[in-house]
Structure formats: structure tokens, C-alpha cells
Amino acid sequence: METNCKSASEVSPLCKDVPKFLSSFVDTFVDFSVSGGLFLPQDPPPNPSSCQNPPADSLSSPPAPPPLLRTRYPTPPDRLVAIGDLHGDLEKSKEAFRLANLIDRSDRWIGGSSTVVQIGDVLDRGGDELKILYFLEKLKRQAARSGGTLITMNGNHEIMNVEGDFRFVTKSGLEEFRVWADWYRFGQAMKSLCKGLEKPEDPFDGVPLFRKTNDKDLVQGLRARIAALRPHGPISSRFLSQNVTVLVVGDSVFVHGGLLPVHVSYGLEKINEEVRDWIKGLGGQFAPAYCRRSDAVVWLRSFSHKLAENCDCASLERVLATIPGAKRMIMGHTIQKVGINGACNNQAIRIDVGMSKGCGNGLPEVLEITGNSELRILTSNPRYDNNYRSALHRERKAGLGLLIPEHGPKQVEVKA
What we know:
Helices cover about 35% and strands about 10% of the residues. It has eleven helices and twelve strands. The chain has helices at about 15-35, 90-100, 130-145, 155-165, 170-190, 215-230, 235-240, 260-265, 270-280, 315-320, 385-395; strands at about 70-75, 80-85, 115-120, 150, 245-250, 250-255, 330, 340-345, 350, 365-370, 375-380, 410-415. The strands form two sheets. A six-stranded mixed β-sheet has the order 1-5-6-7-9-8. Strands 4-3-2-10-11-12 form a six-stranded mixed β-sheet. Strand 10 (about 365-370) and strand 11 form a beta hairpin. Helix 1 runs antiparallel to helix 5 and helix 5 (about 170-190) packs across helix 6. The longest helix is centred in the first third of the chain and has 23 residues, at about 15-35. The protein is globular. GO terms for molecular function: hydrolase activity.
């Protein structure tokens, strides 16, 4: 796309802005096509009180580093909601948000000033992974305009996919990324026609061709997923680099798997920054070691065992003692078939209920914490009738780490 402008002095503001307008239009069109019909609202104006880098003094100044990821929110919000693993199931994801009265029937944010934490594992096991990423991004922006906050976290499946570990990818997941690649390339081709825009990078540069595989759609989906999610990929950089890996909100510590004393000593802020930089392509192919081993922050199961007596409560107590004001650790990663529950005198709250159709197909439940630290389980699950409660008490005698209603979170049935 060329203009009739002949010199820099003759360029009108409208002429000068044509490339920017075209780029924005193409991005919006691609987003709408990939997300299932979402128009992302514009980002709200920056908050002067937030940790932002100062603008460059001149064009010759070096580019500013990315803004810091916020790790700690010392003042507890009036209402804090925690949502577990979503694993590629958009409808169950929406059900979870509706349970907490965070979105209306049109999927618009109605949560006001609520703070919401999604504990990670959006990716794998389902075919709506990109749609969920766009859905969460839309809600982040809508929440910010209403004084609310939606914080997304990295789970082990985000780390695995950025590393190129696709063991838990579904065919529908590969197809979703294949379709994304078609639209993304279309958008890049449109931008390349405009003389005022830089030539777009090819996201497939360096991605293997897999010539020995005869399934064309499988190969295209696999290559698209690698291109999108590898370090500095279009999807990983845009969405996953915004995730935190560890988080402290009021008196609650959030992490996908769990924290050990060595992780706290290393530095929670340092973990968040290093993982973000790795996702943005500033490291190697593989994540930092504290994200990759069985005792990693996104893989640990020391506090999630079905039997409370097998949880390492002493280690958990030491961790919480080293984080000022922390009373509990909230984690996902390990499916709790009995629903959201706690162990170690409710210092460990486990919120992964396996809600995705690809991973248990459990009924959604969410955890709500009000300003006075009262915990409630919001559920549409009819299991919480008197007969089922009696069964749960029998299981408690066998050593299951279940929340005792009188002393822990209250179960509140909500019609979804």
C-alpha cells in the first residue's frame, strides 16, 4: 500500500498514520477470527501508581526494559477468587467465572473490584486453548476498567509447551493452532503490502518441516504450535509472558505446584522475572531448573497428596513462616476428586477439581476469600447435600485431607 506523499515535509497526519491504522485493523481482524468472535477492548490508561518504567528521554535512548511483573499485593482485596486448572475447556472455564458472579450471560465482566487468580494450566488436554487465552485477556482489560484485577499464572503445562513438550496436546488443540497460523500468516501478508510498515518476522523461521510424516494437517498443526509457543513466539510473548509463576495476595500465597524453602530463599520476584524473560526469548530453549524438576514450583506435589498424613506439613509451615503475613498456600496441579479441599490445618488449599472435559470432566468449583479471610467454596455440585457430607466425614476418618466446614471453607451451592 503506497501513498502519494512526495516528501517528509508534505506528509499529512492522516497519511503518516495509514500504516498504523492498517496494522491495527489487521490485528483486530485476526484476533476476531482466531478467538471465536471476540473484540478485545483497548488497554486501560496506565496507572500512575503502578511500577512502570519511565519513558525514554530521546530517540537515541536505549529501549526500556519491560515493566516489572507484580509479585506481591500486600493489601488483601475485599473479594479474592481463585480458579483452578482449565485445560483447554472454554465452556467449563466460563462456568467457573459465572459461579463466582464474575461474568454475565454475555461473558462480560461484572465482578467489579474483585481480584481473581487463575492458577495456571490453560494449555493441553483440550481444543479451546487459544480461545481461553483470548477470553482471559478480554476479561483482564474489562476488569481493569471496573477497578478489578485478573491475574493469570504459569502452570507446568505452560512451561512444557514453551519448551516444545507436547505430550498432552490433543488433535483438536493442534487444529486450533493450525487455524491460528493460517489467519496469522494472512495478517502478516496484508501488513507486508504496506510500504510504511516493517517487514513482519516469519514465526516459522527455524521450525522443523517434519517431512517424514504424511499427515499434512498434523504437521501443519505441530509446526504452528511450535512457532506460536516457543520462546519469543507470537502467542507465548503476547499472552504467557504476562503470567506470574508465584504470587502473594494478602495472606495467601499462590503457586501452581508448591513452594519449598529453597524457592523462597532464591526470591519470588526473581523467579517471576526470569521465567518471563525466558518466555520472551531472552534465555535458552529450556526453562530455569526450578520449573523443570519434580520438586519445581509448577510440578511439586508435596502438599497435594490425597491423604493428609502424606503431605509435608512441616515444610509448608517453614515456607509460610518466611513469607511475611502468609497464612496459606493455594495451589492447583493435582486433581482433587472430592473437590476443593485443604490439608495441614488448612494451610494448604488445593483447588484443581479436574473440571476440563479432557481431564476428569468434574463440575467447576472456585474458592472465594473475603476481606476478613473467610474462605468459601462456590460450587454447582449437588454432592454437597447432607448425605454426601456424611460420606465425606467417613472419608475424613480414613485420613483424607478434606476441609472441615466448621473450621475451613464453607461450601456454598451456586446454580450455574
